[in-house]
Amino acid sequence: MRPDALCGLLAEPDRLTTFAALVLGAATPSEVAASTGLPARQIVAALRRLEAGGLVTSVDGRIVAEANAFKEAVREHAPPPAVEEDLDPDRAKAAVLRVFVRDGRILRMPAARGKRRIILEHIVASFEPGIRYPERAVDAILRAWYDDHAALRRYLIDEGLMSRENAIYWRTGGYVTL
How much is the pTM? Predict the structure, then answer.
């Protein structure tokens, strides 16, 4: 059953109340009436509709709520899991990037120098080789990647991926794709 059809079955207050009473232990129309206060006519109509929709069944004269219908509907109609595109063709680098980069932002800076270098090489690709950037432009680009953009800027300089002179920065390392 589709989740929207399942919700549609429970959209009417009488059916929802009847189903809730069954889940809470009522097993006959008279027990549902005693616990809900609904008139017998409304309960019978609700039970018919719920049974036709597969939310209740009758077992040995007792009415049973099919609570597993919710799990089954969600499992059956769940969207396929999102497949993230690898951020790097190298599988080892892509694995590091998957751990530390999500939705174009660095979640946390790796403590291990090798992993940090992979992250930094990925980030430095945001800068065009041969272009000189004022510090404000560099900060704006790095802030989009990570909240502590000043630390990120220092890492890029320390790793030799960028150079600076008089508050002007330029790319000096990392891979260039043609």
Answer: 0.52
